[in-house]
Design goal:
Layout: E1 2-5, H1 10-19, E2 27-31, E3 37-41, E4 50-54, H2 60-72, E5 78-83, H3 102-107, E6 111-118, E7 130-137, H4 140-148, E8 156-159, H5 165-173, E9 178-188, E10 191-196, E11 206-213, H6 217-228, E12 234-241, H7 247-253, E13 258-262, E14 270-272, H8 275-283
Parallel strand pairs: 1-4, 4-5, 5-6, 6-7, 8-9, 8-11, 11-12, 12-13, 13-14
Antiparallel strand pairs: 2-3, 9-10
Helix pairs in contact: 1-8, 4-5, 6-7
C-alpha cells in the first residue's frame, strides 16, 4: 500500500509507512500568489495501486489539501483516507435555528473506499461519508501505555466527568492503573464542589485524561482543585492537542506537571504516536 502524507500529517504518515516497512510517497505542497493551494504527488505511479492518504483537518486549508489529494489519486485501485483529527466534528447538531450542521457539511465532501478517524467527537457523523466503510479508531489505550512508562507515584487516571470515563477506563485497561472521574456537586447557589468520585488522591500523581484539550479553561480549574485536595503532581493526557490560543500557558500556570498527547495533531506535546494503530488497521483491509 502506498502511504501519502498530507501537509498537516507528514510526520505521522512517515511513521505509519515505517510501521509498514515502507517509505512515504513524496508530495509537493505549494500555493499560488492568490493563496490557492497546489498539490502534486511526485515520482510515483499510483495507477491501480492501493493508497492510504493521511491528513489531519485541523484547519480549513487542511481540508482543502485532503480533498485535493483524494482527487489526485483518482486512478488508484483503492483509496483509503485516514483523518487523525477531524475538524468541525463538535458541530454535530443544531443548537439554534438556522445553524448549519457543520460536521455533516464537511463529512459529505469526503469520498473514498475506506475512511478512518481517531477518537472522533461524535461517531454518528461518519454516516455522512461516501465510503464503503467509515470507522473510528480508539487511541486512549496508547496514552495508558505511555502513562505506565512514566514511573509515577501511585498514579490515578481521572476523567473530567462521567461522560469521559470510558477514556480513563481504556487507558487503564492494560496497565492496572486505577481510574476515576470528577464529579460536580452544587453546595449552594454560587458554590460548586468538584472532587473525584471514588478515590482518595492525597499524595498521588493524577493524570487527567480527555479526548481533546482546546482552550484548557476547564482543565486549568480542575488542576487547581486537584492540587488543593492533596494531589502530588497533576498531568494532562489527551488524544487531540488542539491547545488553542494561550492554553499551554494557562495549564502550566495552573500547575500542570506535563501535557501528554498523541500526534493526531502534530504538536510539541505529541509524545505518543498513533502510527501503530493506523498501520494495524490498514493491514486488516
Amino acid at each position: 500500500m502506498k502511504i501519502i502524507g498530507g501537509p498537516a500529517s507528514q510526520l505521522l504518515a512517515s511513521r505509519v509507512a515505517r510501521e509498514l516497512n515502507d517509505k512515504p510517497i513524496l508530495c509537493e505542497f505549494d500555493k499560488f500568489p492568490d493563496g490557492e493551494q497546489y498539490i502534486r504527488i511526485l515520482d510515483e505511479d499510483i495507477e491501480n495501486e492501493r493508497v492510504a492518504i493521511i491528513q489531519c483537518t485541523y484547519s480549513d486549508s487542511d481540508l482543502i489539501s485532503l480533498l485535493q489529494l483524494i482527487d489526485a489519486c483518482e486512478d488508484a485501485k483503492q483509496i483509503n483516507v485516514i483523518i487523525p483529527y477531524l475538524g468541525y466534528s463538535r458541530q454535530d447538531k443544531k443548537f439554534k435555528n438556522g445553524e448549519a450542521i457543520s460536521a455533516r457539511a464537511i463529512t459529505r465532501t469526503l469520498t473514498a473506499d475506506n475512511v478512518f478517524t481517531v477518537n472522533v467527537h461524535e461517531k454518528s457523523i461518519l454516516e455522512y461519508i461516501n465510503a464503503n466503510s467509515a470507522n473510528d479508531l480508539e487511541a486512549s489505550y496508547l496514552l495508558g501505555n505511555h502513562i505506565e512508562s512514566l514511573d509515577l507515584k501511585n498514579p490515578l487516571i481521572v476523567a473530567p466527568d462521567s461522560g469521559a470515563i470510558y477514556l480513563a477506563e481504556n487507558a487503564s485497561s492494560k496497565t492496572g492503573i486505577e481510574y476515576d472521574y470528577l464529579e460536580k456537586e452544587r453546595i449552594s447557589g454560587d458554590e460548586v464542589s468538584i472532587k473525584t468520585k471514588n478515590m482518595d488522591i492525597t499524595g498521588r500523581d493524577v493524570v487527567l485524561i480527555d479526548d481533546m484539550i482546546a482552550t484548557g479553561g476547564t482543565m486549568a480549574e480542575s488542576i487547581k482543585i486537584l492540587k488543593s485536595q492533596g494531589a502530588n503532581d497533576v498531568y494532562l493526557a489527551c488524544v487531540h492537542p488542539v491547545l488553542a490560543k494561550n492554553a499551554v500557558l494557562r495549564l502550566f500556570n495552573a500547575g500542570v506537571r506535563d501535557i501528554i498527547s498523541t500526534d493526531t495533531i502534530e504538536k510539541a506535546e505529541s509524545a505518543v504516536s498513533v502510527a501503530p494503530l493506523i498501520a494495524d488497521s490498514l493491514n486488516k483491509i
